[in-house]
Structure formats: structure tokens, C-alpha cells
Amino acid sequence: MRVLRTVLCCLPGALALGLLVLCAVSVDHRGTPGTQPLARAAAMPAAAVPVRRAAAGAHSAARPRIVPRTVWLAGAETYHRDPIRYADHVEAVFLHHTDSPNGYDCADAPRIIRYLYAGQAGGREWDDIGYNFLVDRCGTVYEGRAGGVDRAVVGAHTQGFNQNTAGIAAIGTFTQGTPVPRAMTDAIAAVAAWKLGLSGTDPRATVRLVSSNGHSRFPAGRSADFLAVSGHRDGYETFCPGLALMAELPAIRDRAARLQGRP
Q1: Are 65 and 138 in contact, with CB atoms under 8 Å apart?
Q2: Cβ atoms of 90 and 152 closer than 8 Å
Q3: Over 70: is that where the pLDDT of 230 sits?
Q4: Is residue 240, in this structure, part of any structural domain at all?
Q5: Predicted TM-score of the model (pTM)
Q6: Residue from 220, 188, 218, 224 nearest 203 by CA
Q7: What average pLDDT does the segment 183-188 reach?
Q8: How far apart are CA 48 and CA 159, in angstroms?
Q9: How far apart are alpha carbons 93 and 22 in whole angstroms?
Q10: Which of 44, 95, 46 is nearest to 206 (CA)?
């Protein structure tokens, strides 16, 4: 698929839809659309703490209930999808918000996800929805990108850093001062604990990732340190996932670590 060199993060996903806004961006030049930086956000480097990893299963966490993508895809138009790509494991999670309205009924979440999918896979001609998982304000977790929730599916969510990571999108807009539902942050922590536990990664650890795309905060090929649960803006010039969700990240990391049975 032809690489889209210029995509605006957190702008309407499909012109015909008008109300919903996208936050996902892709990571490399091998068939997934790219983006250009839009907002100048202050860099937020990860704390310099040792990487804490153990053998897979040593600190595993239970898999949360995940609604399969067949639920939100029911009755929707589907789009051409390139072959699914897999990484070896997931060692970091990037948190996003969809930049869409907050006052939705949770029963309406599948429709919202369909709009996001139409904007990304249809309007922008991406190979699929960019996020691996989406979480609504009631704490329901949805499968996003195809390929199997148990596997390390390479997504299209954080420019330069899709490899060995997972993207979790909070459905809504979480700018500074916006209340973040506890059910949502609990669900995000549960997904992070489970996915990172499969590789034995402590959610509070620092991990080293290699940028695959110069449109990220780091030139292609450069190593960068991130906390294992980071925000989209840590790797890309954007306000996503919003200052309210960024402020929740320390608590989400701690909650995820407890779910893994860590002290």
C-alpha cells in the first residue's frame, strides 16, 4: 500500500463523518500510512529506572474480557487489509484517546469504533484500524486491529514505535481537567498488565525501543527509552492522549503492576 506521507493526528477520521476525530498514527514505511508532526508538545522522557523483566509467566496477569471485533464490525463495510504483521512480543503499551465526544452511551461504543475504522481504513486507506484495543468509559475492552488479541500484532498507533508495542485507545477526549472514569483506567491497567505480562515486563519499567520512522520524536534507527506504559505524545509530537489521561499514567502503571502480582 502506498505510504501516506501527511496525515493529521487528531483530525476528523472521515470527511463524511465530521464529528469523530482520529488519534492513531503509523510507524514505518513498509505498507502502513505515515504522518507528519502537528502539535508541538513538550518531550516527556521516561524516568531512568532499570528495566525490570522476568521470564514470561513469572508475573502474568489474567486476560480481561475483550469484545471481539466481529461485534463492532457487524453490518459495517469492510476494507482491503494488507497481510497482518507480527512482532516477537509486546514490551511497551502506548495510550491514546480517540478525540471524540465523551457523553456517549456505552451501548453506542461499537458504532463509534465503526466510525473510527471507516475513517482510518476507509477514508485514509490504512490497512486496518490503527489501535490494538479500545476501551469505553464503562470499562469495556474491544479488540481493535485484526490478528488475534493474544499475539503481538503490529499496529498503526504511534509513529516510529509500533514494533513490539500495543496501542490502547480510550474512547473520548481527555484534555486537561476532564474527568477520567475509574472504570476506564482500571480496564486500561488490566489490558496493560496482561499484554506486558506475556513478555514478563514490569509496567513500571523502562524499556528501550528503536525508532523506525523519522517522523517520530526520534530519527529512524535511534534507540529511545520509554516507560512500559507511556502516552502517545511520549513518542510523537501530539497532545494525544490528553493531559488528563497523561496524569493518570502513574496510577495505571501501579495498578497494572499489582495485577501482575508485583510488590
Answers
A1: no
A2: yes
A3: yes
A4: yes
A5: 0.81
A6: 188
A7: 98
A8: 23
A9: 18
A10: 46
Q: Is residue 3 part of a domain?
A: no
Would 208 be classed as within a structural domain? yes
CA–CA distance, 152 with 84 (Å, rounded to integer): 10
- Give me the pLDDT at residue 76, please: 83
* Per-residue DSSP letter, 236: S
**Domain span including residue 77:** 66-259
- Total domains in the chain come to 1
Q: Which residue has the higher pLDDT, 51 or 168?
A: 168
The residue count for the chain: 263
* 164 located within any domain: yes
Alpha-carbon gap, residue 263 to 257, rounded angstroms: 8
Q: How far apart are CA 175 and CA 160, in angstroms?
A: 24
Question: Is 60 within 8 Å of 198 (Cβ atoms)?
Answer: yes
Report the mean per-residue pLDDT for the chain: 83
DSSP sequence for 214-229: TTSSS-TT-EEEEESE
- Distant-in-sequence contacts of 77-85, Cβ < 8 A, 24+ apart: 77/118, 77/122, 79/121, 79/122, 79/125, 79/128, 80/127, 81/121, 81/127, 81/128, 81/146, 82/1, 82/31, 82/32, 82/127, 84/146, 84/147, 84/153, 84/154, 85/30, 85/153, 85/154
Residue 16 pLDDT class (50, 70, 90 cuts): very low
What CATH number does residue 84 fall under?
3.40.80.10
Its sign, for the CA torsion 64, 248, 179, 118, is negative
Axis-axis angle for helices 182-197, 243-259 (nearest 10): 50
Cα–Cα distances in Å, from 204 out to 63, 217, 233, 252, 260?
Answer: 19, 22, 18, 9, 11
Model confidence over 128-184: pLDDT tens digits?
999 999 999 999 999 999 999 999 999 999 999 999 999 999 999 999 999 999 999
